[in-house]
Amino acid sequence: MSGWAPALFTSAWSSRCHTIGGYGVAVALLGLTGGLVLFCAALLLVTVSVRWAGPLRRLLWILVAVATVSSLGYAVSRREVPVVVGQMPGYEGAAAGLVTAQGLLLVLIAAVTLARQRTRPAGSRALLRGLGTPLVAAMSVTVTSAYTTTLVFRTADHLDRGRIPDPIRPSPPALGPLEPPVAYWWAALAGLAALLVVTAAIALTLPAARRRRRAYARRVVERDYPDAPASAAPRLAAVRDTVARSFVTEELGPTLVAFFVVSSLGLATVALDLVGIGPTQLAARLNRRHDVLAVLTAYVTDIGIWIISLIVVGLLILAYRAYRSPETRRLVGVLWDLGTFWPRTVHPFAPPCYAARAVPELTRRVCALAAHGPVVISGHSHGSVLAAATVLHLPSETLPRIALLTHGSPLYRIYARLYPAYLGERVLCELGERIDWRWRNLWRDTDPIGAPIFDHPDLTPGVPREAATVDVRLRDPRGVTVEPTDTVPPAVERHWPYHTQPEYQDAVRLLVGRIRGRAP
Question: Model pTM?
């Protein structure tokens, strides 16, 4: 909402009219955009039922399209536009108030998260000591502010014929000064700072942890292929590199901490937004005799705007490649799954939650199948999260005929660490107890997404002994030499589906036998 609302207000009031009719159109457009903002604010405060969610979303998109097209059409139709000095009344305060509200909400989320850490259950080991949720919220606010800033500045750059306006470098009087709100200047500077700090953190963290990851990969290869011939040395080196790269996600903690710190420091600019002091004005006040620092700050802010613009273009290219490249499409799909799994009722433009539809449908299907015999619920990658949610929703009379088989599962690596209150160690143990530990989880060291669920050193002493039987490690690849029936060595499977492996078939037979009461 923060991105298009100021733009609509600007487009509705950028063209002053000389006639009473034109003034009435401008007032009508202002009322339409204001009503649209109030409508969105009302949706954030109320819970909308599933029956009304679809019609309200369609109505909202229609109103946005009508307001945008009407505002642009009105701005284009005005031929004689007088030069207006200054900004639209209330525009600066509205943008600063929006940034202030977002900053206060981030502080409130962080405070509530830290307060709840004192009462969190044992075994719910959270990412960044429970600050994963504020981190995701700060990332969302930062990205939204950066994109909004890029849109506003690129529009101003086009309207003033290629010059980005600034109080230190004003536009010529004939063009009319277009000064974006101070909050957008700070957002551009904060976006550049966050990008530089995160890049520096990655450049320092990954090389420092490379030795530890390579040592672990070397131990894995020595354990799996102790009798490999000397001719397989290149293949062994490739497997070591794959194992080392698959554990990069565990080394991104300092990078996330750096991003969170930069985002927190960016909240300090909220006070400057309220008084209307931008980066260049602050630099000019700090260095009163010379304006070199102020001009340098203006150029640095411009660089931040251009870099953010290039990032937006890069995301558009990534979206285009997602339709042509299976690897890119798989990466985008993983991010999309993470972003659309949890239910939501407050964001008018968010895509609908597929778990709210998939889990009940899967629950009904499993119950119907379980009435006729044993059922093994198999879930690969993010499907394992849906499978776990389904087991947690099954009625008690169905559970004795149910078993769970997960493979390439991010239940621990991602979900138990990001959402410990929902899928932490306590919930995972409850999941195993509901099905009497008829559960197998297949994982590989080369898998960058899947990981063991209970076979890690972070377990608390209260975990049942049956949890030790859940995780089954698969050697990947199966060998490093060419088999007699083939011409190339076995491929490195990484995160590819596990159902083609013999261990998968063995796990299915074992689970079905346990459902029927036969000993393994």
Answer: 0.74
